[in-house]
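#structure-requests
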Amino acid sequence: MMAHVVVHGSRDLGEALRRAQTFYSLFPAGPRFRLVEPGPARGPGGEEADEARLEFDVSGYDDPSTSAPSPPSSSPTASQAG
């Protein structure tokens, strides 16, 4: 539902991303990102460059590639018990 409101209620992608950022900032554990729009730049033909990027803050999330897997359980299985 949130995606529908953000996308269909926005004039362009930039506005949709800013609205999503505002929505997710309401939640302490929500994703953190920001839309970075550089100042007016000119393309090779002198036209205005239409460029932006999203920067994500993932500092509060665990990186599964750096955490060790949990050791196997040492408790006996049903077939080994009794």
